[in-house]
Amino acid sequence: MPAVEPRNVDMRSDTVTKPTESMRQAMATAAVGDDVFGDDPTVQELEKRIATMLGKEAGLFVPSGTMGNLLAVGSHCSGRGEEVICGKDSHIFFYEQGGASCLMGVVLNTVPNQPDGSLDLDEVAKAIKPAGNPHFAAAKVLALENTQNKMGGAVLSVEYMEKAGAFCKERGLLLHVDGARLWNAEIGR
């Protein structure tokens, strides 16, 4: 029987777990190309596989969760002065150096996170400012985080995510899910 490689997995963040020797070997021997020219087969396979798993038409590999959040906010919000509603303990608000505001010109409006990492949707509803008033930033996005980093890696339930999705549809908001720890959420489900 082959020797079992010891595992040391740290799920506090998507950035702290060290790759095992077999993971390093897989990276060293992976087929590579230039992503600018669209000829990196490993990245193409990863993007396609994850898009299929999540039921999306396409995927885009980015090297960090922060970069993914910035791209999402920038694509969901069409102009300066629009608003993303998120948890006060969310990664997008607490840790990302105000990138959504300084780079995308987007206002982050926070509501308290519940102990399970969710946001009280009644509180989110109260945070939405009246539409059409030029004095207010227009709410465009509800941003959730699954798993919720500052809440000990709490996993938001599928039922809660569906309820939040329906809430957004009713109010004309887009839903962004910071999925930097998506695999942790899958394991914790």
Folded structure, characterized:
The chain is α/β, with parallel strands linked by helices. Helices cover 39% and strands 13% of the residues. It contains eight helices and four strands; from the N terminus they run H-H-H-E-H-H-E-H-E-H-E-H. The longest helix is centred in the first third of the chain and has 14 residues, at 41-54. It is globular, with a radius of gyration of 19 Å.
Summary keywords:
4 strands, 189 residues, four-stranded parallel beta sheet
Q: Name the average pLDDT.
A: 88
User: How is the main sheet built?
Assistant: 4 strands, parallel
Number of strands: 4
For the termini, the CA-CA separation is 32 Å
Low-confidence stretches: none
Cα Rg: 19 Å
Shape: globular
User: In which range does the helix fraction lie?
Assistant: 25-40%
Question: Which percent band covers the strand fraction?
Answer: 5-15%
Q: Treating each run of at least 4 consecutive H or I residues as one helix, how many helices? A: 8
Helices and strands, in N-to-C order? HHHEHHEHEHEH
Structural class category:
alpha/beta
Query: How do the strands line up in the largest sheet?
Result: 2-1-3-4
